[in-house]
Amino acid sequence: MLSRAALPLLATLLLFTNLGAPRLWDRDEPRNAGCAAEMLRTHNWSVPVFNGELRTHKPILLYWAMLGSYTVFGVNEFAARLPSALFALGSLGLTFGIARRLFDKPIATGSVIVLSSTLMFNVAARAATPDSALVFCVTLSMYLFVCENGLQKPYGTKTWSHWALYASLGVGVLAKGPIGFVLPICIIGLTCMLANGPDVVRTESRWQTTWRIARCTPLHFLRTAIAMRPVSGIITALVVCVPWYAYVGYRTGGVWLTEFFWQHNVSRAVSPMEGHSGPPVLYYMVAILVGFFPWSVLAAPATAFTVRYFRSLDPYASERVSIRFLCCWLGVWVGAFSLAGTKLPSYVTPCYPAIAILVSWFVLHMAEATAWRPTVRLLKLANGTLVLVGATIMIAVPIAIRKLAPGSEWLGVLGLVPLLGGVLGWIRLTQSRFTTAIQWLGGTSLLFCWLLFGFGAVQISRNQQYVEFLGPIRTDDRPVLAWGSLEPSWVFYAEQNISFFTTNQSDALQQYFSQSEHQDVYALVPRHLLREFPVAKGQAVREIHSTRYFLKEAEVVLLHVQTIPATRPELAQQDSRHLQ
């Protein structure tokens, strides 16, 4: 087991290796990073704006963090991702603290290793998105709840952690909106209700117990809500988050508040947006199996062992209370987003610390129960799954990326890591060396994530040529427009705003050209729409160069469009020559 001093070093190596080497990935990363860069250029630290338009998708916390990072390191990929990586480091430390208070140091250490070597946590930690900030805020609130309540006291007590807990929820509202307050409160409330519910009388039948619990539920709910001291707590949270919301509402005439709360909260909850939908239960089951890989191969043995463990455990044991809290954390978060209309795999990342602690608890406790033969068989199945996934990566990855990212086919070699890890783990299990088999799984997970995100992502990113492609724009002061397509990364790497016109806005484009300041411009046009580009009489159009869209087979062309003065008709001979 790693020492506590080695854990921060290991986490830093995983999260910071080549953090700024890959280009920003469309579409969310350049939107967020570009928004902060534009706020920095305009000396505007309060109203999120991207490409000259109000950005109402996310609150201010991530942009503030990026602005601070840009001030120190300049506007670049590393500075844009640094806040997410630091939030992730904080989440790992808080996960250790929660597991240490609920269980013991070995489980706490294992929790950090598990969480830091899962796919979706690394994605959040290395992306310029607010997901890592929300994970940190939620984990912080859960840590403060454990510090305050200890999961053993009847109700909350008046300590410093009570005020800090609600303040952290206020920060969560600044990170992602109301969800940063509502769901953590639901987790805490459900945990308190279950911990302080009516005692189960062993002589009662199941129906009698259910009826007695149902009768006292309203009163018990009210007592729990009062014990959580919601008035002082809500006031504390509002003091933290309301000043900015009130100010941005004032600066935008209420537009930002209306679009954010209605469109990006209520509408996303009641109906799918941007095509992000899925079956209510199955969607997040699959999302967690993929996002928690490689540790998700333990899903079957962990479930079977936990059921057996609870059947044989004294119902009043302290560990049962801790497991129940973690299950509330997982169940409330996954359940709430399963009911929501819009679904994305990243939405359930804030419950990953709870899953990591549960997996670590399962692994270390199962070491004492290896005599239970079904557990060993299921562990062999888990290692077989790891082998299968590794073989699939080796075969499928070169085929999948041959056309989209030529030259990166060798990344299929990364499949050797889970393949060999699964084979060696299976061999150790046949030798009844359970601890060594689990160590192989841990080492496999750490190595796979380090190679995939630290080096594999860099290789894939080399196929994005937007920095070189937009070089002439950055060194010139001509306006830039995009017709038919606009990638957010173009705005970030062009280092200026880009006017966008759809293919149905030909008249608006001609009106744009008629303005004196727009008679000598750059235009970004997809090659397959090049012949449809509306060129008016008296305009000279020259193709500068082109490049492929990132991870697409289509091309985008950079044009120089110049309106020829009536006094220079000889220049009009260049009109539309490249469009024929």
What is the compact description of this entry?
With 580 residues, this protein is of the alpha/beta class. The protein is 61% helix and 6% strand.
Keyphrases for this structure?
single chain; 580 residues; alpha/beta; D-Maltodextrin-Binding Protein, domain 2; 3 domains; five-stranded mixed sheet; two-stranded antiparallel ribbon; 23 helices; globular; disordered C terminus
Shape: globular
N to C succession of SSEs: HHEEHHHHHHHHHHHHHHHHHHHEHEHEEE
Q: How many structural domains in the coordinates?
A: 3
Low-pLDDT sequence parts: 199-204, 571-580
Q: Structural class, judged by helices and strands?
A: alpha/beta
Portion of residues in beta strands equals 5-15%
How many H/I helical runs?
23
For the terminal residues, how far apart are their CA atoms?
68 Å
Radius of gyration: 27 Å
Describe the biggest sheet?
A: 5 strands, mixed
Helix content: 55-70%
Mean pLDDT: 86
The largest sheet has its strands arranged as 4-3-5-7-6
Counted beta strands: 7
How does this structure look, described?
By secondary structure, the protein is an alpha/beta fold. The protein has 3 domains: 6-264 and 279-366, no CATH class; 384-461; 466-579, D-Maltodextrin-Binding Protein, domain 2. The chain has 23 helices and 7 strands. The strands form 2 sheets. The protein has a 5-stranded mixed sheet, with helices on one face. Strands 1-2 form a two-stranded antiparallel ribbon. A hairpin with a 6-residue loop joins strand 6 and strand 7.
